[in-house]
Amino acid sequence: MRLRNKPWAVKLVDEHPESVLQDPNPEVKIDWENRFADFSRPLEVEIGSGKGQFITTLAQQHPDRNYVAIELQTTAAGIILRTKLEKKLDNLQILRGDAISIASFFAENSVDVLYLNFSDPWPKTRHEKRRLTYKDFLKNYQTILKPTGHLEFKTDNSGLFSYSLMSLNNFGMVFDFVSVDLHHENEEIVTKNVETEYEHKFASKGNPIYALHAHFK
């Protein structure tokens, strides 16, 4: 969902290039080592972070890990940045760019966990290639994830969930966890789950949340 433009957010992003990398050149390697206080920590990435409730919560809960929020909208990036600054999250970086270029954003075998939360379902068949679980995206994820890394996916859209199960299976991925009603799993799983803004909205209406965790062979 496109957010209404907020001039303060655009201004804030422009004022903090040390925290927000804007439209990176795909031909130039990103120097992540100098963008984090401690680059030796595990690296986790969320594609399409929205207002950042999920990724900022993780960064706050796990100061021993590094996080990158990939978000195309400048206003959304500004909202994430405001939270990052308020909570002093030195383990969070924001990349304002298109996930289609994700293989150029990170080195091979460098990412531990990749999160896809409530991605645009692109329901029309002609838009299949834009879905973040389409095979071309999966190839890029396989390139940047470590051999021990994995993908975590959540959505409220049953059609996108069914498509994603099929796409990941056809790509030869191994499923570690699958749920058609995440918020009614056992207590341990529910307690560990970190909600996104959309997730809270949809779940509060009684909509089931679909989820899966998978890794490449």
From TrEMBL:
UniProt: substrate binding residues: K124, D156, T196, E197, Y198, E199
Leader sequence residues: none
EC number(s) recorded for this UniProt protein: 2.1.1.33
InterPro entries: SAM-dependent_MTases_sf, tRNA_(Gua-N-7)_MeTrfase_Trmb, tRNA_methyltr_TrmB_bact
Keyword vocabulary terms for this entry: Methyltransferase, S-adenosyl-L-methionine, Transferase, tRNA processing
Catalysed reactions, semicolon-separated: guanosine(46) in tRNA + S-adenosyl-L-methionine = N(7)-methylguanosine(46) in tRNA + S-adenosyl-L-homocysteine
Region annotation Interaction with RNA: where it falls in the sequence: 126-131
EC main group: transferase
Cellular component terms per the entry's GO annotation: tRNA methyltransferase complex
Residues annotated to bind S-adenosyl-L-methionine: E46, E71, D98, D120
Pathway(s) annotated for this protein in UniProt: tRNA modification; N(7)-methylguanine-tRNA biosynthesis
SUPFAM superfamilies in the cross-refs: S-adenosyl-L-methionine-dependent methyltransferases
GO molecular function: tRNA (guanine(46)-N7)-methyltransferase activity
Recorded superkingdom: Bacteria
Gene3D superfamilies linked: Vaccinia Virus protein VP39
Family designation: Belongs to the class I-like SAM-binding methyltransferase superfamily. TrmB family.
Function: Catalyzes the formation of N(7)-methylguanine at position 46 (m7G46) in tRNA.
Name of the featured protein: tRNA (guanine-N(7)-)-methyltransferase
